[in-house]
Amino acid sequence: MRFLIALLIVAPVASAQAQERRWLPEPVLVASFVDEEGTLFGDPRGIVPLPDGGFALADRGENVVRAFLADGSPAWTFGRSGSGPGEFRFIQDIDVSAEGEVLVLDRRLGRATIIDARTGQLVGNFQIRTGGQYGILPSSGPGRVLVIPESEKDETLWVSVSEDGAALESADMPVACSHSLACEAFTTVTGSMGAAMAFRWASKLIFLDPDGSVRSIMDGIEELPFPQVNTESITIPALGNSSARVTRVDRSGGEATASLTADDAHLFVLFAGAGEERRRIVNVYSVANGDYRGSFLFPDNLGGLAILSDGRLATLDRDYFPTVHIWELSW
Question: Is residue 5 part of a domain?
Fold first, then answer.
């Protein structure tokens, strides 16, 4: 039997008290997989853990999903550029369900593709008729997903989608976020505990139960509020100094989240930040109650996170050669 996510805005809302950052033991690098030739990872824009201990990357350059075993050796590759079944035009987001299915959201095609995480075979795909999408989140049953649409209006909605692409249930974002640009979000499955969401511009954390209901809303340790969104006129020299109205996020407060991953126990949030520690800090929160557990400091900037089934952390580095590092974490 397959279940539909239904979002209920009746959950308790909790705010963490102001906390000082607590540093956890330094992560230990145990393996690195480097794509010096540009043939292994392509142009990776997302990394997710696989049930067998490996990881998968979304290669936006070639419009494929690349899966790897825990030792870094290739397992399977799925997709190509195009509009047919098993093809992609623009991979916007990727996630993995607790049942072991990879869900891929194609923004240009408005379509969700489901892949068997163990074999790399196509399970199915369906259209999502909700406009442009920011993210995709597997539900507790295969073939049903939750999307966070990029609304043409000021507000952002969460929408549950059936296998034929119809929006079945929707609810307002359960946080004070006035515009869809300010609500840009990242989502991850938290194992059997449900799922979690973090935001690019604000430190709010939302924890969902397996049925999709909101369990709690927390303030992250940085406590960055949602920014203002401003509309202004600009002059475009390339178009004969014509003017245009542009809506932008006020970035003066800085970015909060650059990536996140989770298992049954912990949510790992890559803090975007600024300065020398930009994208080097990973904050850890309890999945059960949202408590802040501490922060890891990494030696270099990170481009993505994936907590593997054996408890090690895979990180994506895109600064020079695309590289996946594997780290041992201790508490």
Answer: no
